[in-house]
Design brief:
alpha/beta; globular; single chain; 194 residues; five-stranded parallel sheet; Oxidized Rhodanese, domain 1
Length: 194
């Protein structure tokens, strides 16, 4: 029984590696696409950061509330929100607060990169909840001359289930669903403080 389980585990590992390495990013929704087409999924982002932690910079671009209540990837270098919640207005179509851009996003990122001894030519991985805000942040960085700004297309929580009893829940992919390391207790050095 042990050999059978081990064989099954090894087979699953090979199959999932093939799926990850051959992922077709051409099928991304338009809102997740970028002109520079630098895409990774959460598992690939984890691999890139783990293999070269000093030269790959992982930025969580979610809001402070998301970090506080949903946690953060353990190997993320910093949280710099790409957008803030506008707590004075509610979006009735999306059932959430309206969002407004963080005018200090690029300045704060440049400062954090300099502190880490990095610049616009280093690999930057941008992760939000599900890949939409991170693609917008990657577009902005591309316009500002960053050469390797990747978007993590499935984000921290992943995409929504499209049908069945879990329809609408974020259970499809993403950092948490891939069981990558994360915590509800990010350090003060990583969180965004205005």
């Amino acid at each position: 029984m042990y050999k059978f389980s081990l064989t099954l585990l090894m087979l699953f590992s090979v199959i999932s590696t093939q799926v990850i390495s051959s992922e077709d990013f051409s099928k991304l929704s338009e809102k997740k696409q970028t002109p520079q087409a630098l895409y990774v999924n959460a598992v690939q982002a984890h691999q890139m950061k783990s293999q070269d932690p000093d030269n790959v910079f992982l930025v969580d671009v979610r809001t402070q509330g998301e970090i506080e209540f949903l946690g953060m990837a353990d190997i993320a270098d910093v949280n710099i929100p790409y957008m803030f919640n506008d707590l004075s207005e509610w979006d009735t179509k999306k059932y959430r607060y309206l969002k407004q851009p963080n005018s200090n996003f690029s300045v704060t990122l440049r400062e954090k990169l300099e502190e880490a001894g990095l610049d616009k030519n280093n690999t930057i991985l941008l992760m939000c909840r599900s890949g939409t805000r991170s693609s917008k942040a990657a577009n902005l960085l591309h316009q500002l001359g960053y050469t390797k700004a990747y978007t993590v297309v499935d984000g921290f929580e992943g995409d929504k289930v499209k049908a069945g009893p879990h329809k609408g829940q974020r259970l499809v992919n993403g950092w948490k669903n891939a069981n990558l390391p994360w915590s509800y207790k990010p350090t003060e050095q990583k969180v965004y403080i205005e």
